Amino acid sequence: MILIWREGCLDVRVKGITGKLFDIEVQLEKDYMNERGLFYGGRMVFGEFQSRTPYNLLPQVCVINITNFYIREGSKELVESIGIMYRREPVETATKVFEMYHIQLPVFRKKCKTLDSVKDNLFLTWLYLLAQGYKSEEEMKMTT
User: Fold this and answer.
1) DSSP, res 91
2) Model's pTM, two decimal places?
3) Least C-beta-crowded within 10 Å: which of 42, 63, 90, 101?
4) Distance between CA atoms of 42 and 127, rounded to whole angstroms?
5) In this structure, how many other beta carbons lie within 10 angstroms of the beta carbon of residue 141?
6) Which helix (H) or strand (E) holds 93?
């Protein structure tokens, strides 16, 4: 069965101080992960792109998928980077306009078991609270 999704709903859309756009998604289904990320990211790029704007001014987009499953069998990486690269030597990034990452919560839960283990990294602290919740007011104070 082939699913065609023409609309789509962004979970969280953020514009950074540099103008970079972020799409943060919580993914429940593994099917077509990269294709869905490309779809959402592409919509963000072209939603911001104005007619007659030079291509070197395309907005940068970063899609972040938070998954409760492993993206690749045997993967032990917390963050799986999906790159768009040229396949010739030397390998180089084809564009800086689009980035996509999959954050694998099963790996996170194995590597980051306590709030204290992530307290020096604001992103991992945020992810810990998202995945585990906080258990006390003391834990919440650690994040501020």
Assistant:
1) P
2) 0.73
3) 90
4) 25
5) 9
6) strand 92-93
